[in-house]
Amino acid sequence: MSLPDPVPSGPFLRLEGITKIYGEARALDGVTLDIAQGEMIAVIGRSGAGKSTLLTVINRLIDPDGGTMTCKGRDVLALRGRDLRDWRRRCAMVFQRFNLVARLPVLTNVMTGRLALRPLLPSLLGLFTDEDRAAAIEALVALDMGAQALKRADELSGGQQQRVAIARAMVQDPYIVLADEPVASLDPRNSEAVMDALARINRDHGITVLINLHSVALARAYCPRSVAMSAGRVVYDGPTEGLTPQVLERIYGTADPDAIEDAA
């Protein structure tokens, strides 16, 4: 079963009643969301609210214990084998810790995002085509990282490494980019560069971006829609401009920006 190509009308991705249980704890408790193609959504909330679990369930790195998830009407939770690998490729993950191979050149790190598009044997041997190299260079140039292509990954700053990770996600030909706290370990200047990169791929390519954020200020600056979570539940879903002090106090127990950063 092949996945449908996204189209502009209707929700692209629908989650209904998604639940994930660890022991006696409900990491996700009946999460229901409609996500349209081309949205850029901030997922906010206190530490342990379920934000990371939500993204890993969408990518199917872990499976939920209940609920349904559909992509243009297709049952994502029923995908197996090659179809599941294709889904994970189409829902590209960007992690806080970059997940780059430090000793390899930037270009090679980006090309690893193409492995899922290749037959098994070339993938296992790490063999790349001219098409792979061209796609990787194009992604790096689009993120102002073309000049760093031949450097080792560990020669770059944290912000540059994160942009390399985003370029790797881009060459996967994704429908969705799921960014799990991608700026949590970065200084304000590098955080802005990474957020600019995510906003650019959202704007220029129409790719849906879900991004877990500690900073409400960054959510306000970059994401028209915010989903706030608390104890595994969605407690706010709407325009980011609607995150009033009263709403923030309900989410974090405070409306003070510094206290919110600590809670997140």
TrEMBL record:
GO terms, molecular function: ATP binding
Classification via PROSITE patterns: ABC_TRANSPORTER_1 (PS00211), ABC_TRANSPORTER_2 (PS50893)
Sorted UniProt keywords: ATP-binding, Cell membrane, Membrane, Nucleotide-binding, Translocase, Transport
InterPro entries per the UniProt record, alphabetical: AAA+_ATPase, ABC_transporter-like_ATP-bd, ABC_transporter-like_CS, ABC_transpr_PhnC, MetN_ABC_transporter-like, P-loop_NTPase
SUPFAM superfamilies: P-loop containing nucleoside triphosphate hydrolases
Domain ABC transporter: 13-256
Lineage: superkingdom: Bacteria
SMART domains assigned: AAA (SM00382)
Gene3D superfamilies: P-loop containing nucleotide triphosphate hydrolases
Protein name: Phosphonate ABC transporter ATP-binding protein
Provenance organism: Lacimonas salitolerans
Gene from which this protein is expressed: phnC
